[in-house]
Protein backbone atom coordinates (compact mmCIF):
# COMPACT_ATOMS: atom_id res chain seq x y z
CA UNK A 1 0.00 0.00 0.00
CA UNK A 2 1.42 3.38 -1.01
CA UNK A 3 2.13 5.98 1.64
CA UNK A 4 0.09 9.16 1.19
CA UNK A 5 1.04 11.32 4.15
CA UNK A 6 4.20 11.18 6.24
CA UNK A 7 4.57 13.49 9.20
CA UNK A 8 8.04 13.05 10.69
CA UNK A 9 9.14 14.40 14.07
CA UNK A 10 7.10 17.58 13.52
CA UNK A 11 7.73 20.47 15.87
CA UNK A 12 5.47 23.50 15.70
CA UNK A 13 5.34 26.71 17.68
CA UNK A 14 2.68 29.38 17.99
CA UNK A 15 3.69 32.75 19.39
CA UNK A 16 7.04 31.28 20.55
CA UNK A 17 5.37 28.46 22.46
CA UNK A 18 6.00 24.92 21.23
CA UNK A 19 2.69 23.11 20.70
CA UNK A 20 3.76 20.01 18.75
CA UNK A 21 6.84 18.35 20.20
CA UNK A 22 7.99 15.83 17.61
CA UNK A 23 4.86 14.30 16.15
CA UNK A 24 5.13 11.33 13.80
CA UNK A 25 2.25 9.93 11.75
CA UNK A 26 2.04 7.86 8.56
CA UNK A 27 -1.18 7.47 6.59
CA UNK A 28 -1.37 5.03 3.68
CA UNK A 29 -3.63 5.43 0.67
CA UNK A 30 -7.21 4.43 1.33
CA UNK A 31 -6.89 4.30 5.12
CA UNK A 32 -9.07 6.06 7.65
CA UNK A 33 -7.15 7.19 10.72
CA UNK A 34 -8.69 8.62 13.85
CA UNK A 35 -6.77 11.03 16.06
CA UNK A 36 -8.17 11.23 19.55
CA UNK A 37 -6.96 13.33 22.40
CA UNK A 38 -8.08 15.73 25.08
CA UNK A 39 -8.69 19.42 24.42
CA UNK A 40 -5.48 21.32 23.99
CA UNK A 41 -3.39 18.33 22.89
CA UNK A 42 -2.63 19.97 19.53
CA UNK A 43 -5.06 18.17 17.20
CA UNK A 44 -6.28 21.33 15.45
CA UNK A 45 -2.73 22.68 15.29
CA UNK A 46 -1.66 19.55 13.39
CA UNK A 47 -4.59 19.87 10.96
CA UNK A 48 -3.88 23.57 10.39
CA UNK A 49 -0.19 22.98 9.71
CA UNK A 50 -1.01 20.24 7.18
CA UNK A 51 -3.49 22.52 5.40
CA UNK A 52 -1.07 25.48 5.50
CA UNK A 53 -2.98 27.89 7.70
CA UNK A 54 -0.73 30.89 8.45
CA UNK A 55 0.42 31.73 11.99
CA UNK A 56 2.34 28.53 12.79
CA UNK A 57 6.10 28.19 12.84
CA UNK A 58 7.48 24.78 11.95
CA UNK A 59 10.74 24.53 13.90
CA UNK A 60 11.60 20.93 13.07
CA UNK A 61 10.62 17.80 11.21
CA UNK A 62 8.89 17.43 7.87
CA UNK A 63 5.64 16.60 6.14
CA UNK A 64 5.64 14.63 2.91
CA UNK A 65 2.51 14.30 0.81
CA UNK A 66 2.71 11.89 -2.13
CA UNK A 67 6.44 12.03 -1.49
CA UNK A 68 6.65 15.81 -1.90
CA UNK A 69 7.57 18.40 0.71
CA UNK A 70 4.18 19.79 1.72
CA UNK A 71 5.60 22.54 3.90
CA UNK A 72 7.10 24.25 0.85
CA UNK A 73 3.72 24.58 -0.85
CA UNK A 74 1.22 27.44 -0.59
CA UNK A 75 -2.16 26.50 0.89
CA UNK A 76 -3.89 26.66 -2.52
CA UNK A 77 -1.21 24.42 -4.01
CA UNK A 78 -1.82 21.88 -1.24
CA UNK A 79 -5.55 21.98 -1.98
CA UNK A 80 -4.88 21.43 -5.68
CA UNK A 81 -2.66 18.44 -4.80
CA UNK A 82 -5.57 16.94 -2.91
CA UNK A 83 -5.39 18.12 0.71
CA UNK A 84 -8.73 19.09 2.21
CA UNK A 85 -9.39 20.27 5.75
CA UNK A 86 -12.88 20.45 7.19
CA UNK A 87 -12.41 23.02 9.93
CA UNK A 88 -13.55 22.54 13.50
CA UNK A 89 -15.00 26.04 13.24
CA UNK A 90 -15.89 26.70 9.58
CA UNK A 91 -15.34 30.34 8.65
CA UNK A 92 -18.18 32.59 7.48
CA UNK A 93 -17.61 34.54 4.28
CA UNK A 94 -20.33 37.19 4.04
CA UNK A 95 -20.98 38.51 0.53
CA UNK A 96 -19.72 35.37 -1.23
CA UNK A 97 -22.58 33.08 -2.20
CA UNK A 98 -21.84 29.45 -1.34
CA UNK A 99 -22.51 28.37 -4.92
CA UNK A 100 -19.98 30.87 -6.31
CA UNK A 101 -17.45 29.90 -3.69
CA UNK A 102 -17.76 26.20 -4.56
CA UNK A 103 -17.45 26.87 -8.26
CA UNK A 104 -14.48 29.23 -7.98
CA UNK A 105 -12.62 26.91 -5.61
CA UNK A 106 -13.30 23.82 -7.73
CA UNK A 107 -12.25 25.50 -10.97
CA UNK A 108 -9.10 27.02 -9.52
CA UNK A 109 -8.08 23.56 -8.26
CA UNK A 110 -8.80 22.04 -11.66
CA UNK A 111 -6.88 24.81 -13.41
CA UNK A 112 -3.77 24.36 -11.30
CA UNK A 113 -3.87 20.64 -12.15
CA UNK A 114 -4.04 21.53 -15.83
CA UNK A 115 -7.67 20.37 -16.15
CA UNK A 116 -10.48 22.24 -17.91
CA UNK A 117 -13.04 24.22 -15.95
CA UNK A 118 -16.31 22.41 -15.40
CA UNK A 119 -19.14 23.73 -17.62
CA UNK A 120 -22.03 25.44 -15.81
CA UNK A 121 -24.52 22.60 -16.49
CA UNK A 122 -22.01 19.96 -15.36
CA UNK A 123 -21.18 21.92 -12.23
CA UNK A 124 -24.85 22.49 -11.34
CA UNK A 125 -25.64 18.83 -11.93
CA UNK A 126 -22.89 17.73 -9.57
CA UNK A 127 -23.82 20.24 -6.88
CA UNK A 128 -27.48 19.22 -7.05
CA UNK A 129 -26.67 15.52 -6.79
CA UNK A 130 -24.37 15.90 -3.82
CA UNK A 131 -26.34 18.55 -1.94
CA UNK A 132 -29.49 16.46 -2.43
CA UNK A 133 -27.88 13.42 -0.85
CA UNK A 134 -26.69 15.55 2.08
CA UNK A 135 -30.10 17.16 2.57
CA UNK A 136 -28.78 20.64 1.76
CA UNK A 137 -31.52 22.85 0.30
CA UNK A 138 -30.66 24.77 -2.91
CA UNK A 139 -31.75 27.97 -1.17
CA UNK A 140 -28.89 27.56 1.32
CA UNK A 141 -26.35 27.57 -1.51
CA UNK A 142 -27.42 31.10 -2.49
CA UNK A 143 -26.56 32.42 0.96
CA UNK A 144 -23.11 33.73 1.93
CA UNK A 145 -20.68 30.89 2.79
CA UNK A 146 -21.68 29.59 6.24
CA UNK A 147 -23.47 32.88 7.05
CA UNK A 148 -26.36 32.10 9.35
CA UNK A 149 -25.82 28.34 8.89
CA UNK A 150 -26.54 26.16 11.89
CA UNK A 151 -23.73 23.96 13.24
CA UNK A 152 -25.12 20.99 11.31
CA UNK A 153 -25.46 22.99 8.10
CA UNK A 154 -21.86 24.19 8.35
CA UNK A 155 -20.59 20.64 8.70
CA UNK A 156 -22.76 19.42 5.83
CA UNK A 157 -21.37 22.27 3.74
CA UNK A 158 -17.85 20.99 4.49
CA UNK A 159 -18.86 17.49 3.38
CA UNK A 160 -20.36 19.01 0.22
CA UNK A 161 -17.02 20.66 -0.55
CA UNK A 162 -15.24 17.36 0.02
CA UNK A 163 -17.59 15.55 -2.33
CA UNK A 164 -17.09 18.16 -5.06
CA UNK A 165 -13.34 18.62 -4.74
CA UNK A 166 -12.64 14.87 -4.46
CA UNK A 167 -9.46 15.32 -2.39
CA UNK A 168 -7.04 12.47 -1.77
CA UNK A 169 -6.64 13.43 1.89
CA UNK A 170 -9.61 14.61 3.96
CA UNK A 171 -8.92 15.90 7.44
CA UNK A 172 -12.06 16.24 9.53
CA UNK A 173 -11.47 18.30 12.65
CA UNK A 174 -14.09 17.52 15.32
CA UNK A 175 -16.82 17.10 12.77
CA UNK A 176 -19.07 15.98 15.61
CA UNK A 177 -18.79 19.15 17.67
CA UNK A 178 -22.12 20.90 17.95
CA UNK A 179 -24.05 18.30 15.97
CA UNK A 180 -27.21 16.59 17.11
CA UNK A 181 -27.48 12.88 16.44
CA UNK A 182 -29.41 13.22 13.15
CA UNK A 183 -27.01 15.82 11.76
CA UNK A 184 -24.10 13.61 12.82
CA UNK A 185 -25.59 10.62 11.03
CA UNK A 186 -26.19 12.58 7.80
CA UNK A 187 -22.70 14.11 7.82
CA UNK A 188 -21.10 10.73 8.60
CA UNK A 189 -23.01 9.01 5.80
CA UNK A 190 -21.71 11.72 3.47
CA UNK A 191 -18.16 11.05 4.64
CA UNK A 192 -18.53 7.26 4.39
CA UNK A 193 -19.79 7.62 0.81
CA UNK A 194 -16.44 9.25 0.03
CA UNK A 195 -14.31 6.41 1.37
CA UNK A 196 -12.31 5.06 -1.55
CA UNK A 197 -9.08 3.15 -2.22
CA UNK A 198 -7.45 6.35 -3.49
CA UNK A 199 -8.65 8.58 -0.66
CA UNK A 200 -7.43 8.69 2.93
CA UNK A 201 -9.09 10.34 5.88
CA UNK A 202 -7.89 11.67 9.18
CA UNK A 203 -10.79 11.97 11.57
CA UNK A 204 -10.06 14.11 14.62
CA UNK A 205 -12.32 13.79 17.61
CA UNK A 206 -12.20 13.58 21.35
CA UNK A 207 -15.30 11.44 21.62
CA UNK A 208 -15.55 7.82 20.63
CA UNK A 209 -19.13 8.38 19.40
CA UNK A 210 -18.14 9.68 15.96
CA UNK A 211 -16.14 6.49 15.36
CA UNK A 212 -19.32 4.42 15.64
CA UNK A 213 -20.34 6.12 12.41
CA UNK A 214 -16.99 6.53 10.68
CA UNK A 215 -15.13 3.35 11.56
CA UNK A 216 -11.35 3.91 11.42
CA UNK A 217 -8.62 1.49 10.37
CA UNK A 218 -6.11 3.01 12.77
CA UNK A 219 -6.56 5.01 15.97
CA UNK A 220 -3.92 7.34 17.40
CA UNK A 221 -3.92 8.91 20.82
CA UNK A 222 -2.47 12.39 21.01
CA UNK A 223 -1.41 14.00 24.22
CA UNK A 224 0.58 17.16 24.83
CA UNK A 225 1.67 17.60 21.23
CA UNK A 226 2.66 14.03 20.40
CA UNK A 227 1.19 10.75 19.26
CA UNK A 228 1.57 8.62 22.37
CA UNK A 229 -0.14 5.44 21.22
CA UNK A 230 -1.51 3.88 18.04
CA UNK A 231 -3.68 0.84 17.55
CA UNK A 232 -6.76 -0.57 15.87
CA UNK A 233 -10.34 0.64 16.23
CA UNK A 234 -10.66 -1.10 19.60
CA UNK A 235 -8.31 1.52 21.05
CA UNK A 236 -11.13 4.07 20.79
CA UNK A 237 -13.36 1.92 22.97
CA UNK A 238 -10.59 1.47 25.50
CA UNK A 239 -10.19 5.24 25.68
CA UNK A 240 -13.90 5.71 26.16
CA UNK A 241 -13.73 3.33 29.10
CA UNK A 242 -10.48 4.52 30.71
CA UNK A 243 -10.12 8.16 29.67
CA UNK A 244 -7.01 10.07 28.70
CA UNK A 245 -5.43 10.51 32.12
CA UNK A 246 -2.92 7.63 31.76
CA UNK A 247 -1.64 9.11 28.48
CA UNK A 248 -1.35 12.62 29.86
CA UNK A 249 0.80 11.32 32.67
CA UNK A 250 2.90 9.33 30.21
CA UNK A 251 3.39 12.37 27.94
CA UNK A 252 4.36 14.69 30.79
P1 LIG B 1 -6.90 20.64 20.26
O1 LIG B 1 -7.43 20.85 18.87
O2 LIG B 1 -6.34 19.28 20.49
O3 LIG B 1 -7.92 21.00 21.30
P2 LIG B 1 -5.21 22.92 19.68
O4 LIG B 1 -4.30 22.52 18.56
O5 LIG B 1 -6.36 23.79 19.33
O6 LIG B 1 -5.66 21.63 20.49
O7 LIG B 1 -4.33 23.69 20.75
C1 LIG B 1 -3.16 23.15 21.33
C2 LIG B 1 -2.53 24.16 22.26
O8 LIG B 1 -2.03 25.25 21.49
C3 LIG B 1 -3.48 24.77 23.27
O9 LIG B 1 -2.79 24.90 24.48
C4 LIG B 1 -3.82 26.11 22.69
O10 LIG B 1 -4.11 27.04 23.69
C5 LIG B 1 -2.55 26.46 21.96
N1 LIG B 1 -2.81 27.32 20.78
C6 LIG B 1 -3.40 26.94 19.64
N2 LIG B 1 -3.52 27.97 18.78
C7 LIG B 1 -2.96 29.03 19.41
C8 LIG B 1 -2.74 30.39 19.04
N3 LIG B 1 -3.13 30.86 17.85
N4 LIG B 1 -2.12 31.19 19.93
C9 LIG B 1 -1.71 30.72 21.12
N5 LIG B 1 -1.88 29.44 21.53
C10 LIG B 1 -2.49 28.61 20.69
MG1 LIG C 1 -9.29 21.33 18.13
From TrEMBL:
Which Pfam families would you find in this protein's record? ABC_tran
Q: Where is the ABC transporter domain?
A: 5-249
What's a single GO MF annotation on this record?
Answer: ATP binding
Q: Which domain of life is it from?
A: Bacteria
Question: Which PROSITE patterns does the entry link to?
Answer: ABC_TRANSPORTER_1, ABC_TRANSPORTER_2
Keyword ATP-binding in record: yes
Q: Spell out the InterPro entries in the cross-references.
A: AAA+_ATPase, ABC_transporter-like_ATP-bd, ABC_transporter-like_CS, FeS-cluster_ATPase_SufC, P-loop_NTPase
Q: Give the record's keywords alphabetically.
A: ATP-binding, Nucleotide-binding
**Purpose of the protein:** Involved in beta-(1-->2)glucan export. Transmembrane domains (TMD) form a pore in the inner membrane and the ATP-binding domain (NBD) is responsible for energy generation.
Family, per entry: Belongs to the ABC transporter superfamily. Ycf16 family.
What is the designated name of this protein? Fe-S cluster assembly ATPase SufC
Q: What lineage, starting at the top, does this entry show?
A: Bacteria, Pseudomonadati, Pseudomonadota, Alphaproteobacteria, Hyphomicrobiales
Name the gene behind this protein. sufC
Amino acid sequence: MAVLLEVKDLQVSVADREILHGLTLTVNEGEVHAIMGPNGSGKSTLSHVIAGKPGYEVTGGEILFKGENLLEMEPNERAAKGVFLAFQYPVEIPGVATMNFLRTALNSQRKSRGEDELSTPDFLKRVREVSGSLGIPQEMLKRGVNVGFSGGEKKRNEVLQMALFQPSLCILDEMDSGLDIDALRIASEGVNALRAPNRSMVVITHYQRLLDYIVPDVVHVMSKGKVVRSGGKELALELEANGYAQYQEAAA
